[in-house]
């Protein structure tokens, strides 16, 4: 008895399947470089197929406000509101708040622009009212007209501490 086997091509998804279940892309974003990568991806991928996970390891509290530098850089970049010359912060920023703080003898080591303060204030208020960082980030994306899904890497507080010869140092104090 002879058996013949015929070779069959592996089953592949046909074009209809690919259209019904398009691929989804995940990008990890941190800092200015991550924001630039996310911006490039947002120009070549459909928004519904792109999720961008933002670093929260640099987040900290300053002057009573929750500051999320990497999320903010990402949001400002995707909304075309970023200061392209500096690579961080908002375009057309003013610094009256910081100038007044300095005149009053307060700490000014971390620069918060007047326009930037609004975002930090809204985030801080919403977090204080029980919303998660993911919920607040989604709200800010809607308000800024950002289409891809942007989410923080965690809703839990996460701090980066640098060990130095002088002792532990919060990341922003080390980096800025």
Helix share, percent: 25-40%
Q: Count of DSSP helices? A: 7
CATH topology: Helicase, Ruva Protein, domain 3
Query: H/E order of the elements?
Result: HEHEEEHHHHEEEH
User: For the report, how would you describe the main beta sheet?
Assistant: 3 strands, parallel
CATH homologous superfamily descriptor: CofD-like domain
Taking pLDDT < 50 over at least 5 consecutive residues as the criterion, the unreliable ranges are none
Please give the CATH class.
Answer: Mainly Alpha
CATH architecture: Orthogonal Bundle
Mean pLDDT across every amino acid position: 88
Residues in β-strands, percent: 15-25%
Structural class of the helices, strands and pairings? alpha/beta
Q: What is the CA-CA span between the terminal residues?
A: 80 Å
Number of domains: 1
Radius of gyration: 22 Å
Which sequence of strands runs across the widest sheet?
Answer: 1-2-5
- Strand element count: 7
Global shape: globular
Describe this structure in words.
The protein is α/β, with parallel strands linked by helices and 176 residues long. The chain has one domain: Helicase, Ruva Protein, domain 3 (Orthogonal Bundle), CATH 1.10.8. 40% of the residues lie in helices and 16% in strands. A three-stranded parallel β-sheet has the order 1-2-5. Strands 3-4 form a two-stranded antiparallel sheet. Strands 6-7 form a two-stranded antiparallel ribbon. The model has no long low-confidence stretch (mean pLDDT 88).
């Amino acid at each position: 008895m002879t058996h013949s086997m015929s070779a069959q091509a592996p089953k592949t998804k046909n074009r209809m399947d690919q259209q019904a279940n398009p691929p989804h892309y995940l990008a990890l974003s941190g800092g200015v470089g991550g924001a630039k990568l996310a911006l490039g991806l947002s120009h070549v991928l459909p928004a519904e197929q792109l999720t961008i996970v933002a670093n929260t390891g640099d987040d900290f509290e300053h002057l009573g406000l929750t500051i999320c530098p990497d999320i903010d850089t990402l949001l400002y970049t995707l909304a075309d509101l970023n200061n392209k010359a500096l690579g961080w912060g908002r375009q057309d920023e003013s610094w009256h708040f910081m100038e007044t703080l300095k005149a009053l003898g307060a700490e000014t080591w971390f620069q918060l622009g007047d326009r930037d303060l609004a975002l930090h204030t809204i985030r801080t208020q919403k977090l204080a009212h029980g919303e998660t960082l993911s919920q607040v980030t989604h709200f800010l994306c809607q308000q800024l007209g950002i289409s891809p899904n942007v989410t923080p890497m965690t809703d839990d507080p996460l701090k980066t501490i640098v060990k130095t010869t002088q002792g532990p140092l919060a990341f922003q104090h080390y980096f800025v």
